[in-house]
Amino acid sequence: MDRKSWIGLILSVLGLVAWEWYYLKTYVPPQHPPVAAVSFGTAESTKAGSATSATMQPSPSLAHPTSTQMPPETATLRGLAVDYLFTNNAGGIANVTVSKHLAENNKAVSLNNDDKFPIGALGFNPGIPLEGFGMTVDDAAHSATFTRTLENGLQVTKRFSVPSSENKADEYRVQLELTFHNPTQTDISWPSYWIGVGSAAPIHHTDLSTYTQFDWSNGSKLTAIDVNWFDGSRIPLVGIETRAPAAVYQQHAPLTWVSVSSQYFCTILNSTGSSGNGVWASRTDLVGAPRLHGIFGAMELSGFHLAPGQTVVQSFLIYSGPKELYRLQAIGGGQDGVLKYGPFKIVSEALLWGMNKLHSIFGNYAWAIVALTLIIKMCLWPLQNKATQAMRRMSVLTPKMTELREKYKDEPQKMNEEMMKLYREYGVNPFGGCLPMIIQIPIFFGFYSMLGTSIELRNSSFLWIHDLSQPDTVAHVLGFPINLLPILMAGTMVWQMAISPKSGDAVQQRVFYFMPIIFLAFCYNYASGLALYWTTQNLFSIIQLYLTRNQPLPKLEKKHVAERREAAKTKRKVRGW
Fold first, then answer.
1. Which residues pair with 189 in a beta bridge?
2. Is the dihedral of CA 482, 484, 489, 490 positive or negative?
3. DSSP, res 303
4. Which of 177, 279, 369, 521 is 20 to 30 A (C-alpha) from 253?
């Protein structure tokens, strides 16, 4: 490498070290008690967003509903794979315990954890639920009903129905029926109001903060913010503020569903009757984890008028559980968008399908990734062979390229023209060796997107790796995690570069030198399943290179000479010689 390449390499290494230091300082807290056990929503934090627009204020008849406090009461209903803890007063689901999945310390995953802002809470001001609901639980009907009569006589009823059938598609679903009844002899106006989707927080201390999000959709367009949105934004390095910090996120627009989610779990509130007309969300600190935050939010719905004796019923579907693609697709409405597959969605879904199919054969996700990598490598084998041949042809052409560089070292434009002429004369593509890498990039980022939120790898072990959805940290040195698999991945990339035919193109060489550093930065604190995939494909590539490296070097012939030779061979075959 020349001096510029070495400078770039050193700066890249320093940048990686600086990023890891920043990441550890900013996002990864020290080992705390399980994050899943923390509580949300202090009185101060839930009232942070009380200031709102006039459209959110109740009508005069409901301007000051009595904040009736009922004696605290809870009840649990058991679903197919979930325990739902209901609480009175705010009236809703205070906690969802997902027994099939484990958090830290081998405890069942716990979602929401907020009796002050339960799923299904409703109110007029953001973050301040209407309280005073009484609770009745019917175990036989698998339902919990909450009722309250307001000062103007309006009766509000919330009925949660937990599925009792053995249909696996319903495991994490709850039906919510919201009823407003006017038993009086006068008209009653019910203003615009919100209904809460609950809260979300990291389940594991290594979960990335950017995955703690609030999402909402109108059925065709998905909008999302994460917990860092509330800090505002600045131009990097310069420090100029482009958006001020905010306590509340609020938007007014038609929508069909809202959700709060962590890296691998989510809660979705889907309006199955009428669409909403706005959203709001806020952030809360987690007890015992000062560097982590939770997020909670709600959907706003339009108000209405009730004539004497009139009843209005609105229905909602609640999903609270793992981010499993097929479950979210079955709900419809684009709710699989919470997986955040992005532009590589098709690739990610195909890889997830293949990984699950192979898991059904091997019974282990690590071996499924290895087998899937082998299948991908076999499909790309012919292309890799062509790329290797292109690199070998470039290596044979290197002496002539060196001569041109020396001859035209003071005339860069002329040198480039002569180089291109040389490539054309000998029929060499200078970027032919890069083609397999270019094709692998969408597959890599498809894995990157898929493994970032798909639940399948959680708690799946392999060799020294305890959880394929987490970094494979084997030790800490001065607080810095030593993640072995990404280091092995970078090492196999260097090994592959060392035995690859050397191309005479300086740009291509620089790209290859930086690739191990770039991939190490992407994978170091990410799901170890991604590093497992790339390490495996590197090893298969190394095997392929060893199988082809001892083949005779191609002869250096100008393109028109080679074409005449091939034409003569074809003519002899036709004549039967």
1. 305
2. positive
3. -
4. 177
Do 371 and 358 meet the contact criterion of CB atoms below 8 Å apart?
Answer: yes
Query: What are the helix and strand counts (H, E) for the chain?
Result: 11, 24
What is the average pLDDT across 474-497?
88
**Residue-wise pLDDT tens digits, 179-238:** 999 999 999 988 889 999 999 988 887 777 888 999 999 878 899 999 989 988 877 666
What pLDDT sits at residue 39? 36
Q: How many CB atoms lie within 10 A of CB 139?
A: 12
C-alpha span between 108 and 101 (Å, rounded): 6
In this prediction the pTM is 0.76
**CA 391/CA 433 separation, integer angstroms:** 5
Residues 52 and 128: their CA atoms lie apart, in Å, by: 12
Beta bridge partners of 462: 465
Provide the 8-state DSSP code for 58: P
Whole-number Å distance between alpha carbons of 455 and 458: 6
Give me the amino acid identity at 131.
E
Kindly report the length of the chain.
577
Tokens of 439: 């094709």
Question: Could you tell me the domains of the chain?
Answer: 35-46+65-340 (2.70.98.90), 361-559 (no CATH)
pLDDT 10s digits, 203-218: 887 777 888 999 999 8
pLDDT, tens digit, 9 for 90 and up, residues 346-391: 999 999 999 999 999 999 999 999 999 999 888 877 777 777 677 6
Structure tokens at 498: 């060392």
Question: Which residue reads 């004549």 in tokens?
Answer: 575
Produce one character per residue of 59-98: b if its CB has 16 or more CB atoms within 10 Å, e if not.
eebbeebeeeeeeeeeeebebbbbbbbbbbbbbbbbbbbb
CA atoms within 13 A on the CB side of 445: 13
